[in-house]
Protein 1
Amino acid sequence: MPQNPTTRAYEHTDIADKTRFEMPKFYSISIHNDDYTPMDFVVMLLMKVFRKSPEDAEEIMLDVHTRGVRVVGVYSYDIAITKRAQGQQMANLAGHPLKITIEEVAQ
């Protein structure tokens, strides 16, 4: 009985040996302090966009206020871009000049 030609084509290839997987790159999202955005707004943004607890959001907001900038999370590229866009849109619609940046994390 003849063998299936499709099966035979894969018998002699070592796909697992030729395939290399790389770890995905991660990106940190930082919020920068300014003199115009209310602290309550920053806390609300951290809770809604970044899913922080009220306690964590307040701690992060105070760090941003005293240090000038603070990383609020580390995410894969697509999630980081989405969260930044959501946060920036929220700030823009409320009329606040909040600055949110993304930076690649060194591995």
Protein 2
Amino acid sequence: MLALNILGYIPGVNILFSEQMFFQVSAILTIMVMYLIPQVTSCTKEQDDDGLRKSLSFLVVLAVLNAVVHSFDVYTLNSMINLFLGVMVVMFLRCSTYETTKYAKISMVVLTFCVLAIVFLKKLTGYNPLPFESPEYGAFMGNEPRVGNLIGIILPVAYSLHPVIALILTICSVALRELLPIAVSVLLVAINSKKWRWYIAGISIVAVVLMFEHIKGSLIIRVTTWSQAIQSWFNNPVKGVGFGLYFGGKENIAVGSDNMIFSSLLKFVTGIGLLSLPWIAYAQSMLKIRFKPCDSIPLALILMSTTEYPFEIGKLWYVIAVLLSIWIVERGGYRENSVG
């Protein structure tokens, strides 16, 4: 299923539609298989996290209410369905064994290196081994920023397999001139050493200074987009502009826009409206991140979501669901050799 999502591509079909189709098919197949094998879905007490269930249920209810207040707009309704499928995948996969999560980690890292191999092969030699032509160096992901988002969110699992693997991926992100994966790798080190936590801000500032000329243009675009999104939100502060949408709403989709806001977190808040803020506070209090190694998974997702858009990339939806499932299994600590 991971390969289907990361490597899936249908030549001649809109990439956003392809990504959504692969995710929905993968989610449905996962739920069916997990449901049909009862022994796989037998959770331990530690895995049956009441706070997790309440947080995810609250999130789905918010999406349903948002669809109602927006008169079941087709785009908002579709986002709600995708969210529900993602939540169901997480809830089923949270009952996986520790061995299963290890295989999932290896699969993610191998698939990421496959994407990177194709990207750098084309960058260095100009040869494209794929049966389709991409206008940018992004292989199956589409472009380099999307590859950077992939690296950023899987760095925690790469680090848990072996720090050298995470280091190699970080170097690749530097070669792609992506900043946030570097910050995520710094975060990983910080979790294992308290003193490093005080250096996160300083190291991040140094990285920004060194890469300023590259990120300046991108930063200007982001600040402009964020400003427009916030202004639009003030016109619809309670109900938001619609879950899965942002300023301009359906009009952006109608003209072929990929509905990007360059911040998954901001897009969520402006899409759901003011009700998103209580959920964020509630989820934070219920999930109780404890700064153990496995907690780097949600922390990396949160960090990437501030100035990047992992939740807007359809190819990453299933990956994110699996990552959250790994986090739930490992933080339960139901085995002595479990990470975290």
